[in-house]
């Protein structure tokens, strides 16, 4: 039985109030803005540095996380650009400028700090430590972006064997490896890696204070930036690969069944509240929300057999039509994410 509320005969259909949808959308955009959180964290670290010019653990950690959020905000902005080529070009320019900024911070920082008053000196010290993870994240993601671009161009010549739809009667079947992981959890995992490695770096700096002073701020900041980005990225990738499972998706004329390892979800089209589908990139995935249950399978970060690509194929047109006929409205984002959503009636 469908759980979707339908108007009685002769009754006008109930629609979600546009103002409520706009308010929820604005709130989610504000709370999910990494630059907002970066400003809050960096702003909070400045008074701590004014109180303790030696830069304690908390101030250092806030500066590191705030810097990473700045880099993440810039990368997200380039990915949201409508033209992928322009986004990639802006990413390259930003990476070069971030590298120049980091070099200038550590090369001329000491002389500039001498002529600043205490509040400005504290803000500059925070900016110095924040610039390392920001530049590091921009460069790490740029390397991944270039690698994906080169790989996609190579695939045009010799495309690897990727997951493909199979057909059994009226049902469509797809088998693919994926990581059972919510996107919210993935974001928290990335933040946790930054916090953990930032804490380790801060602890080492505190325990080896004399050594850090002898090495000088230039080497310390560069080592911190490299230590936060590359090892953390490789560790996260390795952990996600270990969680990869074999998945099977079966879509019939009226039902969707998906199994990921020991987890399964079975729902009719009328019971689906939300379905997201993205074919390529690190965030290639399938998400299904139905009756309070949620299953998210990230194919873009899964371990795949040699010669295959971590992707999923586009949804067949007949399945798209069936989903829309069940009352789901579809939309497509600039990043290639297709979303099928059932609008809930107003109370």
What would you note in describing this structure?
α6 (183-207) packs antiparallel against α8 (217-242). Strands 1, 2, 3, 4, 5, 6, 7, 8, 9 and 10 form a 10-stranded antiparallel beta sheet that branches. A hairpin with a 2-residue loop joins β7 (285-290) and β8. The two termini are 21 Å apart. Mean pLDDT is 78; it is low at 1-22. The longest helix is centred in the middle third of the chain and has 40 residues, at 118-157. With 347 residues, the chain is an alpha+beta fold. The chain has helices spanning 18-31, 34-51, 57-79, 84-114, 118-157, 183-207, 209-215, 217-242, 317-325, and strands at 166-168, 171-180, 245-251, 255-260, 263-268, 272-278, 285-290, 293-298, 329-332, 337-341. The radius of gyration is 24 Å and the shape is elongated. 56% of the residues lie in helices and 17% in strands. The chain contains 9 helices and 10 strands.
List the helices and strands and how they pair.
Blueprint: H1 18-31, H2 34-51, H3 57-79, H4 84-114, H5 118-157, E1 166-168, E2 171-180, H6 183-207, H7 209-215, H8 217-242, E3 245-251, E4 255-260, E5 263-268, E6 272-278, E7 285-290, E8 293-298, H9 317-325, E9 329-332, E10 337-341
Antiparallel strand pairs: 1-2, 2-3, 2-8, 3-4, 4-5, 6-7, 6-10, 7-8, 9-10
Helix pairs in contact: 2-3, 2-5, 3-4, 3-5, 3-6, 4-5, 4-8, 5-8, 6-8
